[in-house]
Amino acid sequence: MRVLIWNEYRHEQHNEKVANIYPEGIHRALQSFLETDDISVETATLDEPDHGITEERLVNTDVMLWWGHMAHHEVEDHIVEKVHQRVLEGMGLIVLHSGHFSKIFQKLMGTSCDLKWREADEKERMWVVDPTHPIVEGIGEYIEIEKEEMYGEHFDIPAPDELVLVSWFEGGEVFRSGCTYKLGHGKIFYFRPGHESYPTYYHEGVQRVIKNAVRWAQPVQRDISTYGNAKAIEEIKPKG
Amino acid sequence: MRVLIWNEYRHEQHNEKVANIYPEGIHRALQSFLETDDISVETATLDEPDHGITEERLVNTDVMLWWGHMAHHEVEDHIVEKVHQRVLEGMGLIVLHSGHFSKIFQKLMGTSCDLKWREADEKERMWVVDPTHPIVEGIGEYIEIEKEEMYGEHFDIPAPDELVLVSWFEGGEVFRSGCTYKLGHGKIFYFRPGHESYPTYYHEGVQRVIKNAVRWAQPVQRDISTYGNAKAIEEIKPKG
Amino acid sequence: MRVLIWNEYRHEQHNEKVANIYPEGIHRALQSFLETDDISVETATLDEPDHGITEERLVNTDVMLWWGHMAHHEVEDHIVEKVHQRVLEGMGLIVLHSGHFSKIFQKLMGTSCDLKWREADEKERMWVVDPTHPIVEGIGEYIEIEKEEMYGEHFDIPAPDELVLVSWFEGGEVFRSGCTYKLGHGKIFYFRPGHESYPTYYHEGVQRVIKNAVRWAQPVQRDISTYGNAKAIEEIKPKG
Amino acid sequence: MRVLIWNEYRHEQHNEKVANIYPEGIHRALQSFLETDDISVETATLDEPDHGITEERLVNTDVMLWWGHMAHHEVEDHIVEKVHQRVLEGMGLIVLHSGHFSKIFQKLMGTSCDLKWREADEKERMWVVDPTHPIVEGIGEYIEIEKEEMYGEHFDIPAPDELVLVSWFEGGEVFRSGCTYKLGHGKIFYFRPGHESYPTYYHEGVQRVIKNAVRWAQPVQRDISTYGNAKAIEEIKPKG
User: Which of A228, B63, B198, B238 could tie B92 with a disulfide, CB 3.0–4.6 Å?
Assistant: First the structure.
């Protein structure tokens, strides 16, 4: 299984507080817990040529992770187009936190993906509302994060195919924090936590959800559907 | 209630067979059965300035119908953008038949919206699979159409929020023919039948479904949600 | 439109605190805001013969409301059977608060309908997560209730067809508080608030949701589907 | 992984035609293709004590398959209760063909589970409508069965969580043939084909779907949720 982690990688280079938390970048933090015997992980960042997302890499990726925040508009449209195409062909996509406003997520959702937000060192408690889902294997009744950015409803997304996690926030809001979608031949998981100024991706529960999601999102082995003009399978009677 | 019917209106002007069926255009055929005491209907077509879709008209439209086929690419992106925005603000949208490949439907769905098709004077039988839905009020167990174009699965759309009708085709295919979606503050209904070379929009059952759909799709009266930075409602405890 | 409100009506007769809030019973409080020119409302309670749910009444009911709590087990199975049958035939059903544990709701859901609970004069804030839904017409971004019983996840129900409202509770939990289902030919709405020891059903927002839900749940006018042995519509070829 | 196949096992013993197709019973035919290095399979039949479904066996079953037809009413209610309980605790359940009318399926669905049917040596073509689903891994665009019993809509089930397969029938009907549900902590898959008088369970495509479904339905490893009275996690302010 081949995973590609895409990270904007700007905060970590320009903001000391963030650099202290993720000295090698959020992508490296994610890579360090995703890499296992049967999962190989590569990374790509905004400032690489083609944002590190070459045709060849895409074709060889089973599941992609996406973290972006302040530079969504710098991601080039033709690259977004290619990632979109790969998702429709079957590549899994895990969109993290502020990636809700990325071009690729908006393009897949068809909505604004807007929400309420607040940075206030706030407690978050993500409750499992779908206990049957492989994405919450090994997770207790909830995941508690001591300090996070708040995201609040209304979250302008299509009703998820499956709602797995719902967040409670100290300041009074709720949020659909773990949402699955199936688009084309690909599976998508949106996972809320991970503001750059908190050590969220070191949290064991958060890591477990991401690890589970990567396995859940891998493509099913079958031929892509055929489209277009189709011969009749059964005889069609001539009509008057 | 104010309805706006958008029609590409090309086949009817350039193809004699189609002109014989819809001499004043598909939009006029739709208008004639939609207009009632409490529903006012306007029409717009591709070759009008701004495709007949002015800002003012859009703001005053509760539900829009969309029929297009051979000239999807001629619909200008900034107009699509405006229609998209209005759907997210609450305008209902009924996408008919070959409108599956329109820019607006693709943008809302996030997928290719591709499918199988065949023009072969084929019998179609649309079965009601959700008998609770207001869209099938007054409809029997199925709607039979003597001759139609075939559309077959896989239909590359997100799993509909509600699947209302499923078509059987003489040539051996099935199709999800009546699909609802909710995106932003707007409701969308995709309805399959209506190939230009058949008199489908004179079919009583087809008309009833479209009439029902228009009522179902009207906007709910409430303020649009607010987004962005939000003050805490509850007190947040200072943390270490 | 004919509405039947069913209420256990025990707390109000045996508990002074509750009697002070709902002196004529919860059913009368519900009736007083539901009755309008085009909606006629009757009530029924546990201790009437057949719990007030006669065959004739059921046949003439479009939408039924159900409030029960301490005496779910006293509701006779053959009455539950009849209500269940009527829902499958198209009658709408609004299940309120502790009705989550009623026999009829469990029978319709197929699950335990269990949940977490706590009586602690707790603040509840129900957030709208589906702004397109007619059930939240006229409702702002949330409904706040100063003091309520807490219900917390995991709520053991099937994933709702539509999730409309999600509650935040002061004590740290979340809950899927407004859930729609379609079963057979009937529509069901579960609505969380309404503990007997709080004046919740006098809350304007709560009343509005219930009023909207009653309209949403009314049966669609069409014949009930036919089942059983069916003649072929198309010719079936003899096989070897 | 431990699988338990339950079969009514009456047709095979009393009907020569069926006995010729499944001489050792449908359960043995299913067992023969399900058993692998990492899946151990046991079988149980109606006429065994407790229908072969002992407490101990249930506790040790990860996924159960259910085939029944003429003797649904002979399955004892207390056994149905136990199977139901185990599904809510996490056991997967694959309900096959005429099992749609079994007590356990009706209890889980909350509806009548009724449908149209016809025995007429009819061609069936099951189309994949969800190409992302692990249940159709290795399956082409459709599965064709030369001769089967027809099942037709309306199928009186709750809208499935996921609709995976839709059948076309020669005689003019369609049917939702592959449906997933999640109830309690368990996953359910209803799979239409498998009338006793046809060799359907020897069909490679049908076998592949059942094999995939068994893997998909296995329980997620996490503690069962806790229910009932819950202590506050956060401080609740005293109110007036």
Answer: B63
In a domain, D81, yes or no: yes
SS3 A75: coil
A140 contacts chain D (CB < 8 A): yes
Q: Which helix (H) or strand (E) holds C239?
A: none
* Distance separating alpha carbons of residues D183 and D88, to the nearest angstrom: 6
pLDDT tens digits for range C156-177: 999 999 999 999 999 999 999 9
- CA C55 – CA C74 distance, rounded (Å): 19
CA D135, CA C142: separation in Å to the nearest integer? 39
**Residue of chain D whose Cα is closest to the Cα of B155:** D129
- D124-142 core/surface letters (b: 16 or more CB in 10 A; e: else): bbbbbbbbbbbbbbebebb
Segment B29-46 mean pLDDT: 97
Element at A151 (helix H, strand E): strand A142-152
Which residues span the domain enclosing D102?
Answer: 2-113+178-217
Distance from CA of C123 to the nearest CA of D (A): 8
Give which of D99, D19, D83, D10 is closest to D47, Cα–Cα. D10
Tell me which residue has tokens 């079936």.
Answer: C236
* B162, B222, B236: best to mutate for the C interface, most C CBs within 10 A: B222
Q: What is the mean pLDDT of residues B116-133?
A: 98
pLDDT at B164: 98
Does residue A138 lie within any of the structural domains? no
Tell me which H or E stretch contains D111.
none
Q: Secondary structure of chain B: what % helix, strand, coil (to 5)? A: 30, 30, 40
Q: Is A181 in the C-facing interface, judged by CB distances under 8 Å?
A: no
What would the pLDDT profile of B138-174 be if each residue is shown by its tens digit? 999 999 999 999 999 999 999 999 999 999 999 999 9
List the structure tokens of B160: 């509909």
Residues A206 and A3: their CA atoms lie apart, in Å, by: 18
What residue spans of D157-239 are helical by DSSP H?
204-217
* Residue listed under structure tokens 């070459």: A54
C-alpha A128/C-alpha A124 separation (Å) is 13
Say how many domains are in chain A.
1
CA distance A149 to A132: 28
| Yes or no, beta carbons of B154 and D129 under 8 Å apart | yes
Instruction: Name the band, by pLDDT with cuts 50, 70 and 90, for residue C224.
Output: confident
Q: Using CA atoms, how far apart are residues A169 and A116, in angstroms rounded to an integer? A: 12
Q: Which residues of D touch A221 (CB under 8 A)?
A: 137-138
Amino acid identity at D171: G
Mutation pick from C222, C227, C231 vs chain B, by most beta carbons of B within 10 Å, is: C222
The contacts of residue C94 (CB under 8 Å, 6+ apart) are C63, C64, C65, C66, C188, C189, C191, C210, C213, C214, C217
Q: Is residue D103 part of a domain?
A: yes
Q: What are the two backbone dihedrals, phi and then psi, of residue A143, each rounded to the nearest 5 degrees? A: -115, 125
DSSP letter assigned to residue A36:
B
CATH of residue D78: 3.40.50.880
